[in-house]
Amino acid sequence: MNFAVTTSMPSRRLAAALLLALPAALTLGACSRVVPAAKAQAEEGPLDARRLELPANEAPPAPANADGKASWSLEGNTARFGVAGTDPLLTLACANGQLVITRPIAAEVGASALFAIEGPRKIIRVPVDATALPGQRGYVWQGSLPGADKDNDVFDSPFTGTLPGGGLIKVTAGDAAREIVRRCHAQGAATKA
């Protein structure tokens, strides 16, 4: 006996549509599955990460001048902030109508940063670069502002300064700093004219 099964045209179309839709549905299903390695990475960090132990008994460094013993002194065209007889913590100088700000702490060759200076009335950010100073080993942070810049008055009052990798410095007001800012403002104004 021979039985022939006949199918109508709409059934064939439905079967063809299902055959085409099946791979698309499987592909979408595969995209939404959570892969165990990806789940582990999200919970524990990157697969190639290395954990480092931080010293538990070390306190963070104290701000420069935390004891309040540093003060300003004037040496020629440079105001030095620090403890007498030691290297300065900060200097302000006037050169060619520019107020030059130097934070003499180690900087990597080619590094640049913003030295954030917060006074009682304003906050300024001074672009600084790793700079080699004549007669000294290594690089320190140094930047400048135009001498006639009105923001230079931030140095007339007590301020704090923050530098990436350099920590916080607390600076008291001083006549030496005000004098350098005043001189530099006069030079900068003369240069503009």
TrEMBL record:
Domain of life: Bacteria
Signal peptide (from-to): 1-29
Organism: Novosphingobium nitrogenifigens DSM 19370
The name this protein goes by in its record: Lipoprotein
Keyword line: Signal
